[in-house]
Fold:
Amino acid sequence: MNTKRLIDKVYDSFPRSDSLSKKKLALVIEKVFESISEEIIKEHTVQIYWFGSFVVSYRKSRIGINPQTLESITIPDVKTIRFKPATKTKQNLNKKI
Structure:
């Protein structure tokens, strides 16, 4: 799913009588993801109770091999984001369709 499909799907779930335009909805969705990103950059866990948690994780430096030259290289420490799905999300994923 891309951003446009997300906006369309959320927009279609609201009654047409609501005064919510697609432009306003797009701004709301953009702000939600900006807020999540800001908290992750600060290395805070973002927990959405019914969906899951975004957690900053660390990978230590290690020795790797350049596949083109077969030389050993050092891969530096990096921060990464991990997603831990909520129990309900996992259960829904494994339901038979």
In short: Helices lie at 3-12, 22-41, 87-93. The chain has three helices and five strands. The first helix runs from residue 3 to 12.
